[in-house]
Amino acid sequence: MNHCVTHLLAQASFWLEPAASTSAQEHDRVFYFVLYVTGFFFALVVALMLTFVILYRRRKGGERTSGPTHNTPLELLWTGIPLGVVIIIFVMGLNAYLSFESPPSDALLIDVEAKQWAFTFTYPNGATSEKLYLEIERPVLLQLHSADVTHALYIPAFRVQRNAVPGRTTEMWFKPVELGSYHVFCTQYCGDGHSVMTTEAVVLDATAYSAKLNELANIFVDAATKQPLPMAEVGARVAKSSGCFQCHSVDGSPGQGPTWKGLYKHDHRFSLAPPGYVLTTGDDDAKWEAYLRESILEPGAKIVQGYQNVMPPYAAQFSGTPYKDKKLTAIVEYIKSLGNPGSPPR
Amino acid sequence: MTTITSQDNYLTYTRGLRSWLFTLDHKRIGVMYLVSVLAAFLLGGVLAMLIRLQLLQPEGLLFRGTDSSVFRTYNELFTLHGAVMIFLVLIPGIPGALGNFVLPLMLGAKDVAFPRLNLASYYLYLLGAALALAAIFLGSVDTGWTFYTPYSTQTPGAVVWLVFGAFILGFSSIFTGINFIVTVHKLRPKGMTWFRVPLFLWGLYATAVIQILATPVLGITLLLLILERMFQLGIFNSYYGGDPILFQHFFWFYSHPAVYIMILPAMGIMSEVIATFARREIFGYKFVAMSSLAIAIIGFLVWGHHMFPNGQSGPMNVIFSGLTMLVAIPSAIKVWNWLATMYKGSIALRTPMCYALCFLFLFPIGGLTGLFLASLTTNFHVHDTYFVVAHFHYVMIGGTLFMFIGGIHYWWPKITGRMYHEGFAAFCCLLQFIGFNLTFFPQFIMGTHGMPRRYASYMPEFQIYHVLSSIGAFLQMTALVLVALGLAYSLWRGRRAPANPWGGSTLEWECSSPPPHDNFESTPKVGRPYDHSHIIWNPAVGGYVRKG
Prior knowledge:
The structure holds two protein chains of two kinds.
Chain A: H1 3-11, H2 22-55, H3 72-99, E1 108-115, E2 118-122, E3 128-129, E4 132-135, E5 140-146, E6 151-155, E7 160-164, E8 170-174, E9 180-186, E10 198-204, H4 206-217, H5 231-241, E11 270-272, H6 285-297, E12 303-304, H7 315-318, H8 322-337
Parallel strand pairs in A: 1-5, 4-10
Antiparallel strand pairs in A: 1-2, 2-3, 5-8, 6-7, 6-9, 9-10, 11-12
Chain B: H1 17-21, H2 26-54, H3 72-106, H4 115-138, H5 151-154, H6 159-186, H7 199-231, H8 244-278, H9 285-298, H10 314-326, H11 328-342, H12 351-374, H13 376-382, H14 386-416, H15 422-448, H16 463-493, E1 535-538, E2 543-546
Antiparallel strand pairs in B: 1-2
């Protein structure tokens, strides 16, 4: 209907950035409607005020006043008109809100972790990034959660905002319709770095997008330099994203499982192991690596003295494909890098 | 003690510091409130200037660096600016200072119903303020005035002190509220029916209702926050099994109605000033009076709009959006009635009226932009951006503080017995109006362009708006300093004020300026509150007198 008009107006940049998502287009329609309606009433108030001030200014000896002291129909009229107006505004806002309440079934699911003071976006293929990568014309459903305090993810060009609340998962969805790079802000005050908790949302076409996700999924290559990363460094990331550090420390502090610090090539004692199996500082790399791989894929095979057999097997995550195997190698390399034969693990 | 003569007024009735510190006179308590609130206002203003200085440059002018810990000082600044302005200036300002002074006078009474409770309320205010200021100078608080959990339970600093200060200030507010409700109920003179109560008192009455019903919720919330912070009970912190959103619900259940605690008394002053300077009976008195109560009631039901984007359920968002729209209606009714009061009036553009006209310009902007925030679609864009900052400053400064200052001018002759320089005061009002709009209008634009609030640094494209805003803020500060100087000068050189310099028709203009200790020698006669026909100019006294 008047969509064309408002679309034209939406290009004007005095009030709003160009709309880059379907929700932004819908938002701008409501925004300009409210702006013109409220603008009209504001102008009316100021015009009446100025008219009365000029027309009825106090003149010499003119302190006599007339005029009615009340008029119930008039009162009801100017109660009713604003009431009607706010009902219209309410319904407009409600309609647009409801049309954006439930995400379409083909929406791409992206997990958002907010923590002081950065966002981490995780895509369905396991790739993670600090910028938000989006595909044009492809609806996306963001699931937000927080690792510490309350944050909010806000993308002005898409007119969307949602809080990331500790202990809850919140959702929002939208469909980007313009290629480009847009600001992403944290809008819920979250401490010292609140104002630097910003990143970008990058909208790509379909080809570039799948290439980007593959590149992000390739954790063995530095995204910026395209150079292979050291395996130990990749291993540290894999270990972190796999939750290893919930039980294993890397600084020697005690945990549910043995610390990784100084673990490599240090004499081990087992409470459970095949008869005659020993593992000492003098054993070669191959034997040590085999032990570490086994302890990740089949943790119950050998149990270090003083620890319980509680770790679940990780065979599904780290074996079966060359890619998974390479991740396992990376973790092993990482543990090796933490080895320090001089000091015993606690 | 000097002998009491008929020439004595409340200022000269007794002398010495003790006579002030232990006074039970509502007028002296009002004056002490006024001085304290203005001191807090100065502090809050200086903090605002520091904020605006920092934001002159995108990377920050005062606190900058690669490590984000440099921004902590900025975060403390906006926390303290908010806490001081809200808890020490806006909430106690008009009721504590002007309300205390004027309320019994408007009733033709000698004092409020509970003079000792009144003094206790003032000392609780001082104690709460002292705790809050101790938090500023002995520790540091960077939670924002909203104290959102779990950040407020984790950040180091003197959060507990500031929160406890706010808790104490809550009691001060409750005491004032109880006192005003009882006073309006019990001390009305013969003939002053409920619909002959001056509208400033309706405003104070509605405010008092909110104060005594909502403030206890804040008190409990703040205590729970202190316990959570000290003992990790697991009420608000999800890490211990609590719910951060619960805190937001508790907090806004008070703090949204508190917005009406701040604006309703200002609306009351509007009605007084417009009636007096248009020399008209207020148009639609009953609608204006009842709309104050409507605001107080509906204002309790809208708090959820502060939580639209935090994952609150859809139906709740819809209900709170609808109720928030409704609360706009009573305010709209008031605006139309004030305009209608000016119709066919005899409008004198004295300084208080200038402030009232500023209100009629600024408050609609603040109120109407509230509709963008109430609408579900637009809220998700402008929530927690500078649009919100601009919106509530238009209501709280453009509305409440403009009428607080307007009210100070209106009752200045009554309080001090002196007239200020009219032209200079009106000029200051204009300067303030320009400075105010220059400060806050650009903030609407940066808000709709996506500038988040509470940022110590920002994207370069927002700089132009921030620079305009800062210039406006410095202009406003200048104007306010000039206002203060002008008023201070009048104490020294101002013309002696007549009993009724403006032609006001309410009872406070019947006693001399400044009023005697006991206010009235005999209880004045009560008629319709805004009947100006019998108030006529008398050149001999340089003021208005009652005919016959």
